[in-house]
Amino acid sequence: MKRFSEEEAERYKAHIALCEIDVDGQQKLMRSSVAVVGAGALASPALYYLAAAGVGVIAVIDGDSVSLSNLQRQIIHSSDDIGMPKPLSAADKIRRLNPAVEVRPICCMLDDDNAADILQQYDVVLDCSDNYATRRLVSDTCRSLSKPLCFAALSRFEGQIMTFMPGAAYYTDVFPVSPTDDQQECRSCAVTGVLNALAGIAGSMQAAEAIKIIIGTGELLKDRMVLVDALTFRFETININQIHS
């Protein structure tokens, strides 16, 4: 078993102090790899916490560039990054936070031709995208590759978080019907708005689920979804049977 350097022992001591993580769990994190689909509102906190946790390899996948309107909620980017590809901007912040992490910026959108080739390289996938087509593609690809998938979505003051594991239901089982273009437009953050701090809550929960999967501890949001209402701070957990009923 590889020993921690003095710097690693100091950096991760608050994790190592947790009996559920300890030395073995921290070393699992440092040997692990996570792919994050999207580099926006949900990905911002998720990427920061995965990097701070010491995840060994983090891929950031997005084909968009930073715009001024992103900065209200996409906190991994700054005003100086406007016009820069989001994966490159995010990679810069990750390296500053934890230089030991290998970050792989992938400046393209996932599609039918590249999704399997990209996602098969990573232990866990986080879906931080903002549209049904990408979510369906990520879900179907993770199912075919038997990859754990941590999902979240935002709309106005409401968030959804769920984890999909091999052998159980995936996103397309829970949401099998594709919304119309008008419905997707009505749900977009740019049109309906979104509370920026809600992205911090949901994205952090995605990171926590990924960490638990890697370490092998705790109870995952498998076959159940957490609904967050930031206006009232009510958290409701429903199982997928309730969703279908």
Keywords:
single chain; 245 residues; alpha/beta; eight-stranded mixed β-sheet; 8 strands; 42% helix
Describe it for me?
With 245 residues, this protein is α/β, with parallel strands linked by helices. 42% of the residues lie in helices and 18% in strands. The protein has twelve helices and eight strands. It has helices at 6-11, 13-16, 22-31, 43-53, 86-97, 115-119, 132-145, 171-174, 181-187, 189-192, 196-215, 240-244; strands at 33-37, 57-61, 102-106, 124-127, 149-155, 158-164, 224-229, 234-239. Strands 3-2-1-4-5-6-7-8 form an eight-stranded mixed β-sheet, sandwiched between helices. Helix 4 (43-53) runs parallel beside helix 5 (86-97) and helix 4 (43-53) runs parallel beside helix 11 (196-215). The termini are far apart.
- What structural category characterises the helix and strand content? alpha/beta
Q: What is the mean predicted local confidence, pLDDT?
A: 92
Q: Span from first to last CA? A: 49 Å
**Helix content range of the residues, please?**
40-55%
User: What is the tally of beta strands?
Assistant: 8
Tell me what portion of residues adopts beta-strand conformation: 15-25%
Walk across the major sheet and give the strand order: 3-2-1-4-5-6-7-8
How many DSSP helices? Answer: 12
* Whole-angstrom Rg: 17 Å
Q: Looking at the structure, what is the overall shape? A: globular
Q: Uncertain runs with pLDDT below 50, 5 residues or more? A: none
- What is the N-to-C order of secondary-structure elements (H for helix, E for strand)? HHHEHEHEHEHEEHHHHEEH
Outline the biggest β-sheet. Answer: 8 strands, mixed
